[in-house]
Amino acid sequence: MLLVGTVVVDSSTVIHDGAVVVEGSTIESVGERADIIERYPDHERAEYDVLLPGLVGGHIHSVQSLGRGIADDTELLDWLFDYILPMEASLSADEMELAAKLGYLELIESGTTTCIDHLSVAHADRAFEAAGELGIRGVLGKVLMDKNAPDELLEDTDTGINETERLIRAYHDSFDGRLRYAVTPRFAVSCTEDCLRSARAIADKYDGVRIHTHASENRDEIAKVKESTGKRNIHWLDEVGLTGEDVVLAHCVWTDESEREVLAETGTNVTYCPSSNMKLASGIAPILDYLDRGINVALGNDGPPCNNTLDPFTEMRQASLLQKVEHLDPTATPASAIFDMATINGAAAAGIDRVGALREGWRADIIGLRTDITRATPLHDVLSHLVFAARGDDVQFTMVDGRVLMENGTVTCVDADAIREETTEISSNLDIKQSVTY
Amino acid sequence: MLLVGTVVVDSSTVIHDGAVVVEGSTIESVGERADIIERYPDHERAEYDVLLPGLVGGHIHSVQSLGRGIADDTELLDWLFDYILPMEASLSADEMELAAKLGYLELIESGTTTCIDHLSVAHADRAFEAAGELGIRGVLGKVLMDKNAPDELLEDTDTGINETERLIRAYHDSFDGRLRYAVTPRFAVSCTEDCLRSARAIADKYDGVRIHTHASENRDEIAKVKESTGKRNIHWLDEVGLTGEDVVLAHCVWTDESEREVLAETGTNVTYCPSSNMKLASGIAPILDYLDRGINVALGNDGPPCNNTLDPFTEMRQASLLQKVEHLDPTATPASAIFDMATINGAAAAGIDRVGALREGWRADIIGLRTDITRATPLHDVLSHLVFAARGDDVQFTMVDGRVLMENGTVTCVDADAIREETTEISSNLDIKQSVTY
Prior knowledge:
The first copy, chain A, is α/β, with parallel strands linked by helices. Chain A has 15 helices and 17 strands.
């Protein structure tokens, strides 16, 4: 396949009249349109206004999708224990699969091609199968909770670890390698020391398995960890083995100097989730400081109940604007830095090579946007547009591993209307507690 | 015309299976769908998923639209004096008209039906004519600058005031009353005392004319006002007559206790522009304090060069999220408070009655959104959806004063493609300084 358009290779290179050739699951060539067409005259062609690397959602909760908008105006721990965990606990296997499909559909439609996805305690198989069917790339993991959880989600330590190992064997490096596994303790508040140490041990046992958890999102969370362990959260995670280049810590809003040193020294990945941190009033993550220290910072939407969307373009805009105002510095997090977070930094956090830029030999994860709309007119600067003005709604084309999941604005990998209709039908019957706004 | 759908009457009332009847420029009836259809069986019907009052842009720069994305990563005064004022100065009358049309087009497409619009020094007639032609409701004003301005924008005081009076006579209460006038000093930095006092005098001379200016957006701006007047900015504006119920002050980010007392005591309107304040790193306006004091707070996108869009839904989301994180309080600015800012509060700031809710006898300014999309699925709570998940892209129907400006997603009031194409053509030839991101 030969894709033509303005090609955003990465945050520093744009080919204004460019083209990308895809062979199988790989990018065979990237260059000037005229050159490429001359070299590949017989390839099937498709044209989009802007072509760019598929975006990486560095912290996603696909299976929370049925709870979109149910818990506005609540603080993290109330939000989690009063609304979200009861919802997760209430879902049947079929409902969990539907939630996952809805989440992946929204990601695919709005330009995310790789997600680091925090599932729930039960029915993780169904999410892996859904991701495999729809075709997204991802690092998914069943959640571990062996304390401080609603009864329906509480597992004993061995059960959770054994189930994790079963899932790793079943799904790590599955679906042509598109799906990989991350051992996924919920957070230190809901996991015993044995659980956290076992998470590290099981991750180490299998090549390429990651570790993904929440950390230091909220001050009450940190207080609880301090109370039970006597340590700051990042120090505790470090002690039990949950730092390192294979670890993705979502949020890291509240960290002190010594914790930041640990993150930097261990090469731990941090995922910045600005919308979620704002809506849950968690706080503003010290992203400039993390970047200064060389910490790899990815970007994530978190989940629909705290965002309330999975639009990666809205998240890029939010990510930059929040740092600019926090530091009263308009040069903070320019478009290029944010684009890196949403592409190559995310791929690095996920531990997936050859993802996050449009380069020869790299995996064919590509999205195409339209710019024939007022919001993109005039278009002085493509990168500025992508970060500050574009929306997931502009995405018209999504390819993962060379497979077309959406083209000309129509999802081809699944019956999108059927997923939406089934969701609407099921949601009206779910017994979900929700906040009320009017 | 009979519109059916979920009817959001205002921030506290939603009719889930509702209808709105429009006669001429007025809402004749609002109620349950079945009742309304029985009463008006022969009316032409149109159906949209959600019907709500058209939104009010409480501080807009339509004529800056050609500068979308030209000045990322710059601070207010550099942004203004190095990029924006030179661009405004460079535009011909035809280009200014095109810029205005592009701005109004984006507003109409994304759901804003009333704007409080800060034009430029020259060619204001062309913006009024464009607004009249496209059909938006607005309070527009030519800018006054009689000091600290580029030579091309600098006017002597009398010239600016005389031109203002000419425009008031020509356009205040024009186009069936849809367009009204606001005397529009740029800001205290660029206006002499004589200019500011004359602005008040000329506004008082004509019934219903407003005053619209920028105030206390940025700390350097405040320092300059202090240096030249010896006073804090709001006190200075108060001294020269630019406070009161007919005054709209955009931003008010940096105000002290005594200034806030003045705003409250005088009934001055404040327009909150969160995206602009974040992107220009101006600061976070003390909106909760303003609301506590009973100050009327509207919401505005500001202009495309600092936002970089005019999407009012993105602005609603931003408005709430920013206050929640600033105060580390998830209950701050719930959806209902934000919806009020974008509707009735904006109408109050604009001084336009019977706008901002869908009520019998009120003006027929109505928009319709689609919710048959993944981002709106499931839809637990309409108001939450509108503030936290909807986008201007979802708007399918826009009516102002009973005239349909967009229906079924297609703009009917103007040739939208032609405006976009002309903009793209002209922009590539404009000699505009712009920041570079890659």
